[in-house]
Design brief:
Layout (H helix, E strand, L loop, with lengths): L1 H14 L4 E2 L2 E4 L1 H9 L3 E4 L3 H6 L1 E2 L3 E2 L14 H8 L4 E5 L5 H11 L5 E5 L2 H7 L4 E2 L1
Parallel strand pairs: 2-7, 3-5, 3-6, 6-7
Antiparallel strand pairs: 1-2, 4-8
Length: 134
């Protein structure tokens, strides 16, 4: 019984908004929407085909696979160009790990903006019918 309670508490803590995982700031849909309204840069790390089927309004599509993959559109140069002088960046994908790894890469490249990972990603955004561009 104690193991079940401990597991549940651990799971609950891991999904709370703002929880840091490996020094990555995780945000929920409410925080994501607020950052969108505040003018944060949104980086969509999904494949172009998925991006063109729908994305968070204003997002920049910079697909990312793994570090040094030749198919990455999220290069250091492209990322810095997309961010410009903005102070806040949100990375998202379908709700898997692609955006997490992209954010970690951005940290290695020295991005100084405040960075967040919308962990539940576009699938949640779409499901809740937020501001989607068709």
């Amino acid at each position: 019984m104690l193991r079940i309670i401990s597991s549940f508490v651990g799971l609950l803590i891991s999904v709370l908004p703002g929880h840091a995982e490996d020094d990555v700031n995780i945000i929920d849909i409410v925080q994501t929407d607020r950052l969108l309204q505040d003018g944060a840069v949104f980086i969509d790390n999904r494949l172009e085909q998925k991006f063109f089927l729908g994305h968070i309004k204003g997002a920049v599509n910079l697909p990312f696979f793994v570090e040094n993959d030749p198919g990455n559109k999220m290069t250091r140069e492209n990322l810095f160009k997309a961010i410009g002088d903005k102070e806040t960046v949100v990375f998202y994908c379908t709700g898997n790990q692609r955006a997490y790894h992209a954010l970690k890469q951005a940290k290695q490249w020295g991005v100084s903006a405040e960075m967040y990972w919308y962990k539940n990603g576009f699938e949640e955004w779409k499901m809740l019918k937020k501001k989607i561009v068709d």
